[in-house]
Amino acid sequence: MSAQAVAARAGSGSSRRLALAILCAGQLMVILDGTIVNVALPSIQESLGFSPSNLGWVVNAYLIPFGGLLLLSGRFGDLFGRKRVFTTGLIVFTLASLLCGLAQNPAMLLGARFVQGVGGAVTSSVTLAMVVTMFTEPKERAKAIGVYSFVQSAGGTLGLLLGGVLTQAISWHWIFFVNVPIGAVAVFMAQRSLRAEEGKGKSKSKSTDAFGAVLITAALMLAVYTIVEASGYGFGSTRTLGFGLGTLVLLATFVIRQAKAQDPLLPPRMFKFRNVSGALGTHTLMVSGMFSFQFLAVLYMQNVLGFDEVQTGLGMVPVSLLIGLMSLFLAPRLIARIGPRSVLLVALVLIAGGLGLLGQISADGAYLTDVFPATVPLGIGFGLAMPSLAGLAMSGATPQDSGLASGMFNTMQQVGSSLGLAILSTLAASHAGTLLGDGTARSEALTGGYQLAFRVGSCFVLGALVVAAAVLRNPPRPGNGPATSTGTSRPADSDTASA
């Protein structure tokens, strides 16, 4: 289906805005549940009797299927219709949330969290694709991607605040129960308001790449599992290296399969366009570094500054507000004026600088002098970076492949956040342990570990800056090149060999 046909079927501007609100509501629930449990973990441990070694699986049981199924779910959206995939994911996610809230023992909670991760992946995988196919006019698309990016980037910090409030005011069960009415309304509204897009379906002359689907799903799940467990076993352990080798074997087999398959799950053409590959690489590195703020700043405020759950959540509010202001209002205008690549480069400098400021925190510091100054460049930078990256990543995708591109974009975010969490938390804990062994006071040792992790996170973002500057290009403005079926020109993104 052409972009013009999709736009015609999308109806009036008001109906498209309603559809955008529904898509973002579903995406917000999914993103919130990646972090909302963090501040509730002590209460969950006490209530259900989790052992300290197993408590982390309340988070990991969600992350592993979520990271592993995004790519496959995005392709299913292209094949069988994105509305169908989106609503199916919402239903699974909502029902799993109810089971999480009703959990009476660790096994029940972990099983429900796994299913919740499956539903989250299916829902999230096609959301960005549906946004870009609904809004084809460049200015409208920039605004829509800004709204999506706000939900995507600010949802994690909002989850910390909401999790703290619900846990303290009612109980940890309600961090899951709150999804049920929201999810039910979203499913109802999605069925009534979202326009059904016909998937390209299974070719009569070609078979669906079922074996490739099994390979990439297993590879991504094993990769996320290896990363999240590496912090406990060590990156140089036999276990981590063995699972890492297994992941590489599965990925290599998948690549060979895609080169030979008649109808590959991940067509090699997706990597011909430098903006697609460059945006995915930049996104992975940026999220790996930025996640050090979302995770380690929380630990610093709680373990060193002595904040409780609600105070910690409130401490993250300035970042969410700045991300919202930038992504909703300023980013679309700047992108239209100077292009997404230029905006992204400035944003990455701001993010790296913000993490560098956090690398100077002190054990006897205060929120206003140690944390708040960093929230300004971080909030502005991330609010500008996400819309720019999303637009660049989707600029090389045809309407037929936009679901896959959306799934790839979200997969890199999940892999990047998991990788950042594993590496940076391990560095922080290891350095703090060394300092404690040398007789350093606990607060100073913890602060030293966080400082090191923030500095390394800043280096990750600087790496993203190098990739973005070297590979990415501003897509030509409308009318300056041959138009593609998405309504935007793409000659700059078709530079393949030079990438």
Automatic annotation (TrEMBL):
Question: A Pfam family matched by this chain, by name?
Answer: MFS_1
Indicate how the chain sits in the lipid bilayer.
Multi-pass membrane protein
Residues crossing the lipid bilayer are 18-41, 53-73, 85-104, 110-133, 145-166, 172-190, 210-228, 240-259, 280-301, 313-331, 343-362, 374-394, 415-432, 452-472
Q: Which UniProt keywords apply?
A: Antibiotic resistance, Cell membrane, Membrane, Transmembrane, Transmembrane helix, Transport
Regions of biased composition (Polar residues) lie at 482-499
Q: Where is this region: Disordered?
A: 475-499
Keyword Nuclease assigned to the entry: answer is no
Its localization reads: Cell membrane
Q: Does the keyword Cytoplasm apply?
A: no
Q: Where is the Major facilitator superfamily (MFS) profile domain?
A: 19-475
- Return the Gene3D superfamilies for the record: MFS general substrate transporter like domains (1.20.1250.20), Multidrug resistance protein D (1.20.1720.10)
List the PANTHER family hit by this protein, alphabetically. BLR6921 PROTEIN (PTHR42718:SF46), MAJOR FACILITATOR SUPERFAMILY MULTIDRUG TRANSPORTER MFSC (PTHR42718)
Name assigned to this protein:
MFS transporter
The source organism is: Streptomyces olivaceus
Q: What high-level taxonomic lineage is stated for the organism? A: Bacteria, Bacillati, Actinomycetota, Actinomycetes, Kitasatosporales
